[in-house]
Amino acid sequence: MKIDESTALVTGANRGLGACFVAELLAGGATKVYATARNPQTIDPAVAGDPRVRILAVDVTDQASVDAAASAASDVNLLINNAGVLGFGGPLEGDIDLFGRDMHTNYLGTVRVSRAFVPVLESNGPAVIANVLTLIALAPVGPMAGYSASKAAAHSFTQALRAEVRNRGITVVGAYPGGIDTDMLTGVAADKAAPEEVARRIVAGIAAGDTVVWPDDASEGAGKVYLGDPIQLERMLAG
Ligand SMILES: NC(=O)c1ccc[n+]([C@@H]2O[C@H](COP(=O)([O-])OP(=O)(O)OC[C@H]3O[C@@H](n4cnc5c(N)ncnc54)[C@H](OP(=O)(O)O)[C@@H]3O)[C@@H](O)[C@H]2O)c1
Questions:
Q1: Structurally, how many domains does the chain consist of?
Q2: Which residue segment(s) compose the domain that 151 sits in?
Q3: Ligand 1 pocket test, candidate residues 9, 17, 67, most atoms within 8 A of CB
């Protein structure tokens, strides 16, 4: 896909990786970027003031807001499913409501937004759906058990969707970052990639026509392990 001919929509565009996607797409010459957020007023006024930016309210857990966005943004040919939440908790003691919130946002939110936009993307094709997953969609981290499961579900959906829409002019990309230095991992001591770099590598992957993107050095190394031996990655992440 040519980024400088794209009209993109990014969920969770008000902060973290989502804000970096908007900046990267604008820097790459995107024709238009729909920057969406639960609360549009949280989008940086400097970004909102760019003539190529349109602001929309989208909560990925709210069908009405997603449907309204699909109607308003009928020219989109690049959808980036970025919005996400992380509830910490292990497999036995983690708060089951947090497991549910992660599932509703990370998995069902991705399903909901993708379904709403497939007709739009098909009519504007060739088009791309890029889903921001995580390395730990492929093998879990125990203290993030609910989050890992929600992203594993989103990974499976990504694969199912890829096959379903490949003959409809839509390429489905899965991106599998390692730790990223955003609010999501505040207080967690870990190697974290800069969100600007992760956004840059995912957008570069989209431009190159990749369907799987390892967008930082840690995920690139771990991805090689996974591709060679998935059980080895499970052991690595289990510590
Ligand atoms: N940080 C990491 O280490 C890491 C690693 C791998 C993958 N990821 C993935 O990268 C993506 C971006 O995360 P981040 O690191 O940028 O985290 P972040 O800084 O916490 O940002 C999360 C974004 O998602 C939005 N969001 C949450 N629930 C939403 C909902 N129901 N509807 C619409 N937007 C919603 C948030 O909006 P509000 O401001 O309204 O809360 C915010 O814009 C997520 O999918 C995350 O799982 C992150």
A1: 1
A2: 3-238
A3: 17
